[in-house]
Structure formats: C-alpha cells, structure tokens
Amino acid sequence: MEELKNNFILDIIDEDLKKNPDLKVHTRFPPEPNGYLHIGSAKAIWINAMTAKKYGGLFNLRYDDTNPAKEDNEYVESIYEDLLWLGCEPTGGVFYGSDYFDKCYEYAVKLIKDGKAYVCDLSADEMREYRGTLTEPGKNSPYRDRTVEENLSLFERMKNGEFPDGAKTLRAKIDMASPNINLRDPAIYRIVHTAHHRQGDKWCIYPLYDFAHPIQDATEGITHSLCSIEFENHRPLYDWVIDNIGFEKKPHQWEFARLNVTHTVMSKRYLRQLVENGLVDGWDDPRMPTLCGLRRRGYTPSAIFDFVSRAGVAKAYSVVDYELLEHCIREELNDTAPRRIAVLHPVKVVITNYPEEKEESFEVPNHPQHPEMGTRKLPFTRELYIDADDFAEVPPPKFFRLKPDGEVRLMGSYIIRCNEVVKNDDGTIKELLCTADLETGNGNPTDGRKVKGTVHWVSAKYAVDTTVMLYDFLFTIENVADIPEGKTFDDYLNLHSEEKLEHVKAEPALADAKPSDKFQFVRTGYFVKDTKHENVFNRVVGLKDSYPKTNG
Fold it and tell me: Cβ(139)–Cβ(176) under 8 Å?
C-alpha cells in the first residue's frame, strides 16, 4: 500500500507526540451507509488507515447510521467489503453510530439539566428565518427560555413518540449572534418516525451528526478525527460538544481537501438516481466512480492509492485529472498483466498457399519483459482473423499495415502479402486472400527485404467468440463544479460512454480467464474479465498514456 508522504496532518501529529510521547494515535473512517463508497472515499480511508499504521496506532470503521430514512444493510455490507478489498481492515474494530444512541440521549439530558439545551417548536423554515445570515446575527427562539423541567419533560415525550415528525427539535443553547452560523443554537435531536436498520422501532428521535459524531469519537478513544474540509466550520461545534459534556480525553478534528476528479460526479444522491433510473448497470457499473465500479472496471487498490498519494494531502481545493488515475493503473498493468490477443473488429484472412488441413503453433511469451511468466502456443491455420483497422484498401501515407499488394508480419509468425480483396454484395469486405512467405516463420526474409508492419491475429478455427465493452467518461464536462446556472448533471451525461463489441475473436487461452483476471490485449489496451456478465471483457484503459510523467 502506498505510504503517506509528509503533510500537514503528520506535522500536527508529530507535534502532539512531542507533547505527549505516550499518545496512542487512533483514527476512524465514519461513512454513512446510504450509498456505495466512491473514489473520494478512498482518500479518506487511505489518510485515516495509513496515518494509524504510520504511528503504530489503531483505525476504526464506524458506520454513521443516525439517519434511518436513507440507510440500508446493503450499503453496510458493501462498505466493509470495499475496505477489505482496499486492504484497510479496521484494526481498532467495527462500530455503529446507532450503538451510541443511549449514550447520546443521556448526554442530551445532561445538557438540558445544565441549561445548555432546550426543546424548540420552530419549524425548519422558521428556524432558518431566525438563524440570520453570514452578515446579520440570528435572533433567539421564543422557546429558548423554557425551564429545565419543561425541557426534560418535552424531550422525554419526544422520545416516547408523542409528537409528529418535525414538530419539535432539541437545540444546543450556544449563541445566536455567533459569527459562526453553526453555533447559532444548532439542532442536536430531531423526530423521525422511521424504523432503523439495526435498532428497529426502539427510537423515534435521532441525534444529528454534529452532536453524535464527537460523542462517538470520544467514546471510542479517537485521538485525531480526520475529515474533509466541508466540516472545518463545524469544528467549533465539535469542540463545544466535547467540552460541555466533559470528556476527559478530548479528540481533535482536522480537515483535508476533498478529492475532486475531472469528468466525475461523487454525489451519492445523484449516483443513486443514475442507478434507480436504469441509466447505468448498477452501483458497480464500470463507468461509475464507486469503488465497486472501479473494481469491476479492473482498477486495483494499489493503483487507486497510488493515485490518491500523487493527488496529495492538502487543505486547498483542487481538481485532479482522471488521466492521472488511468496513468497509475496503466503503469501497474504494463508490468503485471499477461499478454493475450483479441481481434476487436475481425476481418477474415485466407492464406491461399497454406494447406487446408495443415495446423501448427507458434510459441509466444506471456510477457515480453518477464520471462518468468512463461509462454503459450498460438494455433495457426489457413484461415485467420486480423483487425479491420490493420487493413486499408486505399491506405493513407505512412500506413505500415496490410494493404493490396503489401506485406505485413503476422505477430510471432509469417510474413503475408495481400493479393485480393473479396467483397460482399453490399461492398463490405468478406475476406482478404493472401499468400504467406513460409520461410519467415522463424526469422526475416532470406532475400533481405524489410517489412515494417506487424499485426496481431488469431486462428479462425480456434478463435473464442467473446464480447468486449469499451468505456468513456460518464460526463462530458471536465469540472462538474463548473456547471452553469440552470443546468444539471443530466445535461452533461455522455450518451456515448459505452460501446459494446460482440463477436470479438480472441485467442483460445482467454477461454480459461476467470472473473477479475486482467490482461493486455496486445496493440489494443488493458482488459479485465467481467464479474457480472459471462464471457465479457471490460476495457480498463487504453495503451496510450498522455499524462505527463513529470506529474508524479
């Protein structure tokens, strides 16, 4: 796994350890189980897991399941599966925010008794009105001065289910004139008459994130609560909860910039919409930025963490080019993926001077740079397939592949010459009639002539029929944060992000490929055997790498 490079978070922890050498670093990853994790989640996981590992500390997984209306066990299971796949097993344990509901309730009662929380009858709209603006202070709720006894009674009645959704909230009593709008008496409990995926119907009131989260951190012994930058303005409220409940060991929150990637939307709400509207093949569609989608696409944990590492850990907003992610997986697969041949757009070639019943095989390496990966045999017969892109009836300048009266090398075997183009009634090519220089199977022509072009091929008799999926960006706009007013993500959906190629002709060895097996299809790109549909290969990434090597 890619290790953390020096960053401001490590600087903070180093300073903390100077002050307290006995400090045991403890981090957590607290996803809400309301959708599948995405590439942005990988950054948070990596920072928290690797920080704990670097200092010999512990790393928790804690499901932030305090909003029952949106959460589901499906997402709980997928999150854990993703963490294990990434190699980030929670060394400190697996926890659920809902396991702390009793504690949260007790602490809420404590705040009421201390005069630091009150039950409010304002509606959500009224609360927004009273809150003020960034330039104007808020005004006190008319219910702010209720007695402790009245608040305790009303809060208990809220718990007992006597009021409908939205009728009342429990609010922290802080400062309606605070320059930080998050400290203007924020709601810390709301009424939600919805069954919980773990707690069932035990509760009809639920703590809000800003209240529950610091309690959970403190209870678990988290030392460094590392989260994305949108929570920076919430840190004073986090500290207020910790201080006013009176935890002896106080966790501290620190924020880093989110991972933003070009051509990518990471809103769980919108991703769910794509799934529910049938615009993609589930959460694991290879075009999705979800970790399960990237896994199905053929990306590896090491490539993802390499990408996250190169993107860096900072506080400043930035958008990282998706091509960097492609570069990372391409670099890895170039070194590790066995080579195989697949002809995506097959055109039949008949070697007219090769006996009809004759068969032979040519031994080719599984990887040109790794002899330890062995070799395999490619069967050779009179009828073959080459790619349509490797033939031009009217070739452009500097076309070094097959053309009428031209020669090419069949990769690892003979040199052939095209003598005749046979066409169908509609003018399409039926087959190419060629002759082979049968003296060139193991070397160059004896007459010393030079043949510049080499093309890949498969035997027509032994070819395996398969399907190949080619993918492009799901969104046409580069930076989804730049969508003009009046437009939505829908306006930039790429309607041509998926291309299905059927009847692709593959070499026999690919018949034994297992789901998730990865290969380089020579001269074509990197592909992975699909985990969802039989006999399908997904393109991970093409061969061409346009990302500047100087960028990491």
Answer: yes
Residue 131, domain extent? 8-256
Residues assigned a catalytic role? 32, 258, 268
200 dihedral zone (left: phi>0; alpha: psi -120 to 50; beta): left
The residue whose two tokens read 């959704």 is: 165
- Residue in 90, 79, 86 with CA at minimum distance from that of residue 37: 79
- Quick one: 86 and 195 in the same domain? yes
Tokens for 342, please give them. 């697949």
Query: What is the average pLDDT across 529-549?
Result: 88
Q: Which of 15, 34, 35, 33 is nearest to 25 (CA)?
A: 15
Same domain for 206 and 324, yes or no, is no
With beta carbons less than 8 A apart as the criterion, state whether 440 and 415 touch. yes
Residue 138 to residue 186: CA distance in whole angstroms: 12
- 167, 194 Cβ separation under 8 angstroms: no
Do 199 and 77 sit in the same domain of this protein?
A: yes
Per DSSP bridges, beta strands 518-521 and 498-506 are: unpaired
pLDDT category, 544, cuts 50, 70, 90? confident
pTM for the model stands at 0.92
Averaged pLDDT score across all residues of the chain = 95
In 3-state terms, the chain is what percent helix, strand and coil (to 5)? 30, 25, 45
Q: How far apart are CA 259 and CA 37, in angstroms?
A: 13
Radius of gyration of the chain (CA): 31
Confidence check: pLDDT of 113 > 80: yes
